[in-house]
Amino acid sequence: MKTLKRKLGEAYPAFTLVELMVSTAIISLLMVILTTMVNQFSQTWRYASSKVEAFQAARDGFESMTRKLSQATLNTYWDLYYVNIGGRQAPKDFLRQSQLRFISGSIAKLAPDSSRFTHGVFFQAPLGVVEDRAGLGSMKDLLNTWGYFVEEGDDTLLRPSFLQGRVPIRRRGRLMELMQPAEAMSVYDLDPKGAPSPVAGDQLRWFRSALEGSSRPVRSIAENIVGLIIWPKLSATDSNARRDLGQSPLSPDYTYDSSLLSFKSAKFGSATSPIILNEGAKVNNPNDPTDAATINPKNQLPPIVQVTLVAIDEQSAARIEAQGTSGNFHQFTDGLFQVACAPGTRSNQQTQYDSDLKTMEQRLVNAKVTYRIFTTNVLIRGAKWSVAQTK
């Protein structure tokens, strides 16, 4: 084996100073690029996570609401229908009956209050909530009066006592859940067998009374909510059949009442003797396409309920609160979602709902609000829609 020897004074091979400087510059540039990419990825991750967290409560509240809404029931049965003849109740017909109720529509009509806005829905469902848990806690299928609506207000009554005075009061729009215990249900006080009569506040006491007072059985299930739209519908087949005849869908103005008391009905009203509805309207057109005799809501649940919930993020809500006046969370839906659609062909049925939705979104964009819209069609499992009964 030969060993290579260098002569004295001969230079060893190595990097020059210029090469070291160039390589250092390249490494530095790569480090800057990698650091920038990591920072951008981290910011994107944090932004996406914050958005998910910002609307997680709204998503949870939306899912809870739609799940319980799908459990609505009327427990219908067939029985004699009575009328007053000579001061005595006499049977007249054999009809579908129910002591339970399902009602939805503008909250300003259902339970008027300046702090409430958009829509509300109230019903009975076998949810098993009781006050006497020791004696009735095992009865999981007991009926409860349940409901959902949006209300603006501070959180003074919603926070635990140990936080009072320690945390700043926050005014927000909230999705509220009515949970009336089985023992407190007053819906059975209503007479299901009497002739349809004008809707008055007393006819709606089965849920209105529970919304009054500071100890009401109501809780907030989602904050930063600026809209709730409830639209009861028929199946696509039945709805399209009505549309082809130029008739209205199930609830062209979002209103639905399974008791028939707030619906127009040519059966029990005419031009000469109209029924006065809760809102002061008169039934004076026997051929009205919204006639209850053709839609037939009497003691029936709507087969489908389209639910739309509009939520904003906390930063946007805090900015709206800083405006300093009540009713600020109403501004995005004021004057909207009062009419869903008009009678006619299929092509013009959803234009008003869609138009109102676009108007609301434009208002949110103009106010530079970050928002999410949750929409789904809830299938009511207890609905067995039938048009056989037209009386």
Structure, described:
The chain has 391 residues and is an alpha+beta fold. The protein has one domain (47-379). Helix content is 26%, strand content 23%. The strands form three sheets. It has a six-stranded antiparallel β-sheet. It is elongated and about 130 Å long.
Number of helices: 9
Helix content: 25-40%
Cα distance spanning the termini: 116 Å
Overall morphology: elongated
In short, what is this structure?
With 391 residues, the chain is α+β, with helices and mostly antiparallel strands. It has helices spanning 17-54, 56-69, 107-110, 133-136, 205-208, 236-244, 292-295, 314-321, 351-366; strands spanning 77-85, 88-97, 102-106, 116-125, 144-154, 171-180, 218-223, 225-233, 256-257, 304-312, 371-379. The chain has one domain (47-379).
List keywords for this structure.
9 helices; 391 residues; 26% helix; 3-stranded antiparallel β-sheet; 6-stranded antiparallel β-sheet; single chain; alpha+beta
List the helices and strands and how they pair.
Layout: H1 17-54, H2 56-69, E1 77-85, E2 88-97, E3 102-106, H3 107-110, E4 116-125, H4 133-136, E5 144-154, E6 171-180, H5 205-208, E7 218-223, E8 225-233, H6 236-244, E9 256-257, H7 292-295, E10 304-312, H8 314-321, H9 351-366, E11 371-379
Antiparallel strand pairs: 1-2, 3-4, 3-9, 4-5, 5-6, 6-7, 8-10, 10-11
